[in-house]
Amino acid sequence: MVIQLPDASDLSSHVHFNPEQGKVWLDEQRGILQTLPAMATIWREIVTSIGVERSRNLFMRSGFRNGEIDAELARKQRPKASLTDLFLAGPQLHMLRGMAKVVPTKLEIDPAEKQFLMEFTWVDSYEVDISLAEMGVLDLPVCWNLLGYACGFSAAIMGFDILFREVSCRGKGDSECRIIGKPLAEWEDAADYGIFSSSDSLIETLYDLQAKSIGQSSFEDGSEERIFSTLIGESAVFKKMCTMANKVATSKASVLLTGETGVGKEMIAKGIHMHSERSEMPFIALNCAAIPQELLEAELFGVEKGAFTGATHARKGRFERANMGTIFLDEVVELSARAQASLLRVLQEREFEPVGGTQTRSVDVRIIAATNEDLEEAVKLGKFRADLFYRLNVFPLHIPPLRERHDDIPLLVEFFVDKYESLYTTKTLGLTDRAMGHLLNHPWPGNIRELENTIERGVILTEKNQRITADSLLSGTSAAAQPLDVDIAIDGLTATTSTGSGHSSWADTIFEQSVSMEAVEAELVRKAMALSEDNVSKAARLLGLSRPAFAYRLAKLQTPATE
Ligand SMILES: [Zn+2]
Q1: In angstroms, what is the span from residue 170 Cα to ligand 1's centroid?
Q2: In this structure, is the dihedral angle defined by the CA atoms of residues 397, 401, 402 and 403, taken in order, positive or negative?
C-alpha cells in the first residue's frame, strides 16, 4: 500500500534564498546549501577518525535533533491538519531537503492508545550515495542521519519515544532501504535508543582506555617479567637499586625516584606498580613539565563543567582515573604552589576538589613522584613545599646513570636490538665489534633513553641480515665520539662538512650560502625517505618526528605551494 502524501507547498514555500545577505532560510531557521561531494569529505574524515560505529551514533544523534527541529516547523505550518498529515510533514521535509524520496507504506497512529506503527522506504538516500562512493558496501545499514531524524521527528510529534530501525538498506547490499518504527516499549531490544541520550564522548573513552591499557597491557602476554626485564642489568649498583625497588613495591609508601633524565624512571615506577597489590588497577603517568602550568591542575584534578571558558563538559582528572591504582608524577618540581597544596591534601586526606568545583572527591591513589633536580635544594630555594617533600620522600630511590653501570650496556643493547627488530619486522646480525666498542666508550649523557634511540636508529638503518655498524649508530648520537661527515646537497650546493669541533660546522656552510630553512628541511625529508626506503614511519623516526608531523612535511614537499 502506498500512502498519498498531502500537498507540500506549505513547506516548500518557506524555503528562501537570500544571496545578498549570504543566507538560505527554511522558515525561520538558517541553513546552508551543501553539495554531496563536500559532505562526503566530512563523512569520510569522521568515519576514518572515529570508526563506523561511533560515526553512526553521531549521525543518528544529529538526525534526531534535526527531526525535533522540523517537528516544530511542521506544527507551525499544519496547525489544523489531521495527525496523519501533520506526521507526514516529516517525510516531506526530508524530501524537501533532498535527503531521499520517502514512500510511506504503512501508517497506523493513535496517540490515545499510544499506538504507532509506521513503515516506509527511502528511495535514493543521500547517505547510501555517500557511503557507497566512499566505502563501498558495508555490512550494516548506512542511513544513519535519516534514521535518527525519523526517531526525533516522530517522538516530538507523538510525545513518546519511538524507535525506527532500518531493516534493509542499499548501503549494505539490499535492494531497497526500508524502515519500521514502533514505540520503544514494543521493541524487544531497544538498546539502540540509548544513542540519543548518551554524549558518547570520545575523549572520555580514550582516557579510560589509556588508563586501562597502561594498567594492564604489556602484561597480558603472561610476562610480568617484561617490566622488570626492561630493568636489565647485572652490575652491582643496579642490582642494589632493584632490591630496593622490590622492597618498596610491596609496601604502601609513597616513593620518590631521583636520577638524571633518561635513566628510565617511568619504567621503574611501572615496575613498582606491577609488583604492588595495586597491579590490577590503573597506572597513570604524567610528566608535570610537559603540560603548561595553567592546565596542570585541571589535568591532575579534573574540571567541573563551566570552570573556565571552553570547559563545556566536566572532565575527570588523572587522580580520579588512577583511583585504587598508582599515579606517577614525573618532574614533580614543576608543580605550581597551588598544585603542590592540592597534592599535599591528597596525600594527607585522600581528597581533592576539581578545578571550578566545590564538591570534594575522595581517592585512594599511591603516588610515585620523580625528579631529576635536587628536590631538597628546591625546598631551600622556596620553590617546593617542605611538608610535601617529606610526604613524597618516604621512600627515596636513586636510579644510577648509565655511565655508572657500563657493564650493563651489552645486555641493554641486546634487549633493544630485539625490541626494534620485532617492531620493524627485521632481523640483523647484531652489532659489529667496533659498534659495540663505540657504545661502551660513549659517556651517555642521555642515559638509557639515548642508548635506546641509538639502537633504534641502528636497526632502522641496517639492511636485513647485516651487522649494525658503528656508522649507523654514530649518525645521530648527541655526542658522537668522532666527527660526522654529512653530505649536503641543496639546490646544486654540495658541501661535505662535519659536526665535529674544530671543523667548520655544516650549519656555517648553510649560512654562508644563504640556504633557506625550507630547503634544509626539504633535503632532510628527502634524505630520510631515501634512507628508510620510502617507509614514512621509519623516516619520521629518523628525524625524531611523529608520523603525522613528518607526513605533513612530506606532503608539503610533494605539492609545491602555488603562488
Ligand atoms: Zn539505507
Answers
A1: 5
A2: negative
Give, as residue ranges, everything with CB less than 5 Å from ion ligand 1: 125, 143, 169, 171, 177
Rounded Cα–Cα distance for residues 314 and 137 (Å): 39
Is residue 163 helix, strand or coil?
A: strand
* CA torsion, ordered 155, 156, 159, 165, to nearest 10 deg: -10
Radius of gyration of the chain (CA): 32
- List domains and CATH numbers for the chain: 9-198 (3.30.1380.20), 203-306+313-398 (3.40.50.300), 402-474 (1.10.8.60), 485-558 (1.10.10)
Instruction: Find the length of the chain.
Output: 563
Ligand 1: distance of its center to the CA of 122 in Å? 7
According to DSSP, the β-strands at 29-31 and 366-371 are unpaired
The string of pLDDT tens digits covering residues 208-265 is 665 555 444 433 333 334 345 456 778 888 888 888 888 888 888 899 999 998 888 8
Adjacent-strand bridge partners of 396: 256
Amino acid identity, position 468? I
Q: Which residue has the cell 563545556?
A: 312
> How far is the CA of 403 from the CAs of 2, 258, 479, 501, in angstroms?
84, 16, 14, 23
339-390 pLDDT per residue, tens: 999 999 999 999 998 888 888 889 999 999 999 888 889 999 999 999 999 9
